Amino acid sequence: MPRPSASIEDRLAVGLSERFDPVALENGSRVGVIGGGPAGSFFSLFLLKMAETIGLDVDIDIYEPRHFVHKGPAGCNHCGGIVSEFLVQLLAAEGFRLPPEVVQRGIDSYMLHMDVGTVRIDTPLQEKRIAAVYRGNGPRDAGPAPTHVVGFDRHLQDLAVSRGAKIRRQLVNQVSWEEDRPHVQCSTGPSEVYDLVAVAAGINSNVLQPIEGLEFGYRIPEAARTFICEFHLGEATIREHLGTSMHLFLLDIPHLECAAIIPKGDFVTLCLLGDKIDDSLVTTFLDAPEVRACFPKAMVPRTVCHCFPRINVKAAVRPFTDRIVLIGDSGVARLYKDGIGSAYRTAKAAARTAVFHGISDEAFAKHYWPTCRQIDVDNSIGRFMFTVSHVIQKTRPTRRALFRMTATEQTRTGNRRHMSSVLWDLFTGSAPYREILLRTFRPAFVARLGWNLVAGNVAPGSLASANGQPTNGDANGH
Ligand SMILES: Cc1cc2nc3c(=O)[nH]c(=O)nc-3n(C[C@H](O)[C@H](O)[C@H](O)COP(=O)(O)OP(=O)(O)OC[C@H]3O[C@@H](n4cnc5c(N)ncnc54)[C@H](O)[C@@H]3O)c2cc1C
Question: Which H/E stretch holds residue 168?
Fold first, then answer.
């Protein structure tokens, strides 16, 4: 028998017959996956791929009522649809390239809008790109479904099915524990018994309450209300007014953490994230001159689809027990950014644990929880960074300094673009918050920020010479 500390290579060498975890997947084991969003599909894909490498034959049922081919809420998983460049690259390295019908637009830059001006920031190394995708099949009222558009979730689900997963178009309404095995119950049909259940039902699902009720210590993650909507502008207007940039706003609006306008095909998606997003905050935001300026004739058009989905702000407590593991938003997600990326990471860590280390509470605690913990700790640093960002948003001199520093950097190359790379990674989720924070402690960063704090405020008119567009007030030195 290999010792519990055996490496993956050791496990591969010994094969299936000598598994060290008393609770482990065997040939013919049944795995139930609740939810076929990114976490559920990634988990199924990785589990099947890893199991194959050690000759393990498992059956996977993915429970997912959505087809992701309908327009509007019925087909949608309520998301900005930005796939971080880090994830785009990871997926490509795994052999999962995103095809053109999935990528609605390659985003190569972003425009940062503040009351002191607007600055365009290109990808820091002028090579990375992020992808804008639809999670479903586009917004409601978008006309007939175009055949050339494939939603991201559908694409991942098809990949999982091509590897052998089966889809059950049913909503799970109960998970119970009987005779040492988890049981999954839908509104119709008998309950199904599984050797392992992976819960990938997101944060907005009713199935999380019964799981909390199993009393193994799981607590549903804390979540906040967000706002998301779609505008129809047409391809040509989008090209003229928004281009291939994601538009981000640093405005002094209480409770608003992030605001982004993302161009996609004939539509643009607007996302507002924060801790108390309500109708009045949405109205205040849409009335802001910096926002209106992004639209033709400075008029915000009617939305074709909108909703207030919830987003994770704190991690779940104990998202695992014997034979049950919670992944993606049902477990832990990155704060305000790259939720699809954290769905990928938690799904992969859970699949690796299940295949190579076992499916007991102990195996998940030892091999799965560290990945969740790492995301959770990084989120604490992210929370601190958003607090600092609030201070900047509230103080005009610091806004001027940030704008000036970012704008003047645009003529520089690579790692001399200190503020631009910090902002890029902060807004796109392309790097861990810890790494971004460490960059802001570098002497060169601090010195440049200090200089711009002086130069940007002693002579605010000098902003006009920078590589951005200052507002009239600042260009005139007001
Ligand atoms: C406004 C907003 C904007 C966002 N923008 C981005 C972004 O631009 N980029 C990014 O990376 N992340 C973004 N996120 C976060 C991202 O959407 C999530 O982190 C990600 O979708 C998590 O994937 P998941 O598979 O865990 O959950 P989900 O995507 O929520 O998928 C859960 C799936 O489970 C299914 N399900 C639920 N209950 C049941 C049940 N009882 N039985 C069967 N199936 C069930 C649902 O139908 C759904 O398909 C955003 C979130 C919000 C709220």
Answer: strand 166-168
